[in-house]
Design a protein that fits this description.
With 302 residues, the protein is an alpha/beta fold. It is built from 10 helices and 12 strands. The protein has 2 domains: 84 residues, Arc Repressor Mutant, subunit A (Orthogonal Bundle); 215 residues, D-Maltodextrin-Binding Protein, domain 2 (3-Layer(aba) Sandwich). The strands form 3 sheets. Strands 3, 4, 5, 6, 7, 10, 11 and 12 form an 8-stranded mixed beta sheet that branches.
């Protein structure tokens, strides 16, 4: 049983004419007869009583008619939705990102929305723990995250997107010569950090810097959101360590960034998605990224 057979059945049932059904479906009358016979054979019942002069729908045919119409309506609706989505006129995309990811999601979303303005985009900021939970569900199409957050999961694909580095965030009155600082000079400073639960990989990277220089901060205050970290640094509660793009994204005239002198603090970001994602909007999103990145290969890769 296929859709053209059902369409021909519906046409004969509505018009009680094989010739008219053939005309409406752009096939021969013998083809319509064959389709009806195939359906009758498949269902094991007669769908029409036929004489030389008239065609009459049987009781079984009357039972089948509304179901056949529902199937065709569903197929037509699905075709319309897919067509609209393929042309950028509908659909929904669900994105999740961690606290450290800012610039790349903004860049790719700006381009995608310009191409497909009618596709709705849901964006949710998730803590590290929440991403670990969400990645095992089907709630989101894509995850922007630090590479080391990507789980060992064969059902997911990840691609490198961008790099960043850690900077020191200090109040404007912080005394320093130039725009960089030695880590060892920070031993007696109070630190204000994004909490380990909010961004465990970022927290681990910062702790590794301290361990490399053989000290542990005397005072560490943790917050679960970036804005609170900025407010705390601006008010003199301490200094912080954050990705440079995060500092740029939350620009505040009361604070300033400093680079670390003599050490590498690189961070690598990835985009992750489920292999079997059937959302057409997700395919459009990937295609959009690949086209953009082919035009700008030196900056982003996917």
């Amino acid at each position: 049983m296929d859709s053209i057979q059902l369409k021909c059945f519906i046409s004969v049932a509505r018009t009680l004419s094989f010739s008219e059904a053939a005309r409406r479906n752009y096939v021969s009358q013998s083809t319509v007869s064959r389709y009806i016979k195939d359906l009758e054979k498949e269902f094991g019942v007669k769908l029409f009583e036929r004489t030389r002069r008239e065609v009459e729908l049987t009781y079984e045919g009357k039972l089948l008619l509304p179901y056949a119409q529902e199937i065709i309506d569903t197929i037509n609706k699905a075709a319309s939705v897919v067509s609209r989505l393929n042309s950028g006129r509908g659909g929904r995309l669900r994105l999740a990102y961690d606290a450290a990811s800012v610039e790349y999601p903004v860049k790719c979303l700006k381009s995608f929305i310009k191409k497909y303005p009618d596709i709705a985009v849901d964006m949710v900021s998730l803590s590290g723990a929440d991403i670990s939970t969400a990645i095992n569900s089907s709630d989101y199409d894509f995850f922007f995250m630090l590479r080391d957050m990507f789980p060992d999961n064969d059902n997911f694909v990840s691609e490198y997107t961008s790099k960043d580095k850690l900077n020191l965030l200090v109040p404007m009155n912080f005394e320093v010569t130039g725009n960089s600082v030695d880590v060892v000079s920070l031993k007696n400073q109070r630190f204000v950090l994004l909490s380990e639960s909010e961004s465990p990989i970022l927290y681990m990277e910062i702790m590794d810097i301290f361990r490399t220089f053989h000290f542990s901060p005397d005072s560490v205050t943790e917050f679960d959101d970036v804005r609170s970290v900025f407010m705390a640094v601006a008010s003199g509660m301490g200094i912080s360590v954050l990705p440079s793009q995060l500092i740029r994204g939350y620009s505040n005239p009361a604070v300033k960034p400093l680079e670390f002198k003599g050490i590498e603090t690189d961070l690598t970001y990835v985009l992750a998605w489920r292999k079997n994602n059937s959302n057409p909007a997700a395919n459009l999103f990937l295609s959009s990224l690949k086209r953009d990145n082919n035009e700008d290969e030196d900056e982003y890769i996917i």
